Amino acid sequence: ILLYRNRDCGLDCLFSAEAAYATFRLGEAKEKAYEVVFRAKKSHQYEFSAMSCLLLAKIFSMEGNYDQCLYHIGQVDQHVDQDGRYPLIDIRDAANSWFSIQMGVPDEISPWILEPDTYNNKSLMNIGQYYVLTCQYILEKEQYEALLVILDNMLDICQKRGLWKERLIYHIFRGIALLNLNREGEAMDALWNAYDMSHENRIICEFI
To answer: Is the confidence at residue 109, as pLDDT, over 80?
Structure first.
């Protein structure tokens, strides 16, 4: 709790960076993310610095700059070398799992991420991200019935934790799964729900 109360860590900038990324304001997102890295390292809040490096990797991936994407994944790894506590190890595993999925090698995802029962022992800030990674893995494997099952669990967590972004992603993944199961009507309902959630706030990146 004290970790999140320390304003010097730049948590407000991290939220701003994520919001800018979601609305495809990538330049602003990078500026805010780099500010978090500077402020968080200065106050030894390495979890937030690592989370910002992962966000920077996603931004550079969106821009097609894979050298910088890989560089910032490596920066997350370096945080573990500096401070090997479990929150940082979990963020590192999430970063490398995300990169593996982006590179088309989903089988390199960290095994614990595919076990939602382990999430209760993880940082509450990142539970939604772990569910998203699991859903991406299952989608890559084209296991659409299994995807619907994990999505039901994800929705329950989203509602309990107030995870707005993950609720949007839930509807997108649900639409894709239902469409591949030839349940077109339900798929369109899910995708319209995603559109309704995103339109007012101009969310773009989750659809790319």
So the answer is: yes
